[in-house]
Amino acid sequence: MKKCLNPGEITASVTAIANMLAKDLSVNELNVMSNIFLMLGDSLAVIAAVKTFNEAICAEDKPTREATNKPSDSSEEAHTGKPPE
């Protein structure tokens, strides 16, 4: 069973985590931490995009079961309609 994500719960959770982290950090530390998480988010977005791209490209390259069971044009069956004896 797939579990769907609730956007409201996610944003509330992330906000709570940010507030917990921020209470003990200086402004400079907050700036560094913020930039680290921005970079992490960008990196994850690139990874997801590449995976999506690769899945689409690789799906096109995979032969289907029907295509792999078809005789090649050079076979006797392709020319005569009869399987070889």
Task: Walk me through the structure.
0% of the residues are buried. Helices cover 72% and strands 0% of the residues. With 85 residues, the protein is mostly helical. The protein has a domain at 25-64.
Short descriptors:
85 residues; 4 helices; mainly alpha
Write a brief structural summary.
72% of the residues lie in helices and 0% in strands.
Number of helices, where a helix is a run of at least 4 consecutive DSSP H or I residues: 4
Main β-sheet, in a few words?
Answer: none
Radius of gyration: 27 Å
Beta content comes to under 5%
- Number of extended strands: 0
Low-pLDDT runs: none
Q: How much helix, percentage-wise, in residues?
A: over 70%
N-to-C SSE string, H for helix and E for strand: HHHH
Form type: elongated
The helix-and-strand class reads mainly alpha
Distance between the termini: 50 Å
Average pLDDT over all residues: 83
